Amino acid sequence: MDTPTLFSQYFDIEPESLDRAGFLDPFLSVDLPLFIDPLLLEKSANKIIASDGIDAFRLHFEQLVRLLLICEVKGDAAWKAAERHLSLKEPAENGLGYGKRGRSGSSRPARVRTRLLETVREVLRLGSKDPEMLSLMGFLEEEVGPDTISDFTTRAMTKVLARITHDFCVQENVPVHANDLSSFDLPMHLRNDSANKPMVLVPKDIVRHLPVTDSWGEVWAATQHNQALREKVNALLGGIITPTIKQQKEVIRQAVLQSAYIFDEFLEAVRKSAVAYDQNDDVLGYYTLRDLLAKKPLAAERRRYDLSKGPVEVHRVVLDALESFKHHVENGNLWEALWAGEVPKRERASQLIFYAIADAHCRANNVDLSSEPNMGGGPVDFKFSHGFKARVVVEIKRSQGSVEHGFEKQLETYKKASQTDFGVFVVIDYGDGGPKIRRIRHLRDLQIAKGLRASEIVVIDATKKKSASKRK
Question: Which of 37, 145, 174, 324 has its CA 20 to 30 A from that of 469?
């Protein structure tokens, strides 16, 4: 069973020691949706990262450049060597990215690597050879996201990350062992598949959060610093009021690939605007969940469930976990963890916090909990199960999101893929969900009228509350 266990908990050290050293306190079984941005390496307060780390990244990229410069045609020996050099397999050891199960790492389709190499080669033909050009590839290629760039960056500086991890662990008396990742002894995590795998720690000031979509606002701001680039972007956008992600990337691609000068200007503008993940805003809820797990251990009363009854009883466990989550948000102060100032946090924030609460219920009652398993219909937020047949799937949506589509289409697809009739649809209502909630409740009523098993709907009021002392 995947459990949200922190590095500090697993190795029994104070979370504050990681904070003082400037490291993230990663989860062992759930990847953080953050990525290493090569543009932040030189800005790091960690002197080893800011010197040896950036040097390792540049050297790795320079080797790729040399291979592409001698490549005559795609598919020749130099091209194949470049493909081997540009490994896009997710490095499970850093605990970052989109993977959710066991941190085993995953590999991307070959076409993604091909497109990335083609674009790098195109930029080289312009005359630009800045290794940090890789940080822009997420803006230029539809299937290349910041997680892809993070994985390449991690692989380029694995030895440096291993070195600073080893030094920290020795200082804090964390056991380290020989491994096949690095010559430095590293802490080992016993995975669910009974395999011991090494881990590396990552400085907090070199990571950014993984956006649901690429930040068009950031791109647009960067274009304003260069008149030729700005005019090109405006001309390409034409009358498009709200460009799609694909249109955004195509526009930026055409605009910045006009010349090496414009490309380098754009890279410099993005470099200057690059900032690390903000612990105060905490839009993903990572620090909130970390505090819940590290300082306020979550527990659940062992209630009486007859799991031999199948999904009906697992469904009860799920609803009780959701009731606990709902209570803490609506009657306690947990709603504060779902806001970044005056802006609702990303969906991932509520998912992570519910995960911690639900996991306590599951462990207390022998129910398996999986976060974002892909059963064939895409990744559902959560799957609760006991044995093979007793399954319940849960999907969480913010009220600003695609609530109706999520209830009517997504959840039903996930239920079918998971071979279950039991589903729960959760709406985190920030005060604007009324019409959408009424419509999905109407859809549910129609399903019940047809004699169908309709998914449960749970609405959680996440609007801002007065402090407990001011409530009547």
Answer: 324
